TrEMBL record:
It is found in: Membrane. The chain crosses the membrane at residues 5-24, 44-62, 74-92, 98-119, 126-149. It comes from Rhizobium soli. GO terms for biological process: tetrapyrrole metabolic process. One of its GO terms (cellular component) is membrane. This is Tryptophan-rich sensory protein. It is a multi-pass membrane protein. Pfam families: TspO_MBR. InterPro entries: TspO/MBR-related_sf, TspO_MBR. CDD domains: TSPO_MBR. PANTHER family: PERIPHERAL-TYPE BENZODIAZEPINE RECEPTOR (PTHR10057), TRANSLOCATOR PROTEIN (PTHR10057:SF0). Belongs to the TspO/BZRP family. Keywords: Membrane, Transmembrane, Transmembrane helix.
Amino acid sequence: MRKPIVYGLFIIASVAVGVISGVSNIPGEWYQQLNKPFFNPPNWIFGPVWTVLYGMIGAALASTWYDQNNTRRLVVFAVQAVLNLLWSPAFFGMQNPVLGLTIIVPMLAFILLFIAMSWRPNRTAALLFVPYALWVAFATMLNISIVMLN
């Protein structure tokens, strides 16, 4: 298959998985009643931000897919992806911010590890993950704050 098609498929699949995860774990009344920190963004911002980030995540995966000696980076990518998919059901579905925190901290660590491991062999993949790392770091601060305030 040609590279542009593969990139497109990885990006579409990544965004689709993110949308399915988001739609399956919509914050409900429980979340609205939680005490949140002053820096909590409005709810409408999460969908567009995550959609862009999932597109970048898909592009990073496609780029890494074509690299030689990519096995360790693909494993790190897979671990962060599984943790990413577990966070919303834990936090919103189970209504458990503490469990969410126990998932998001290692998720952030694996995102940073992917960036570090990719920096030399695939700077593009690493750079595509930087906004994701920044957003998840922010989400981790939100998660910690919600645990502390509730």
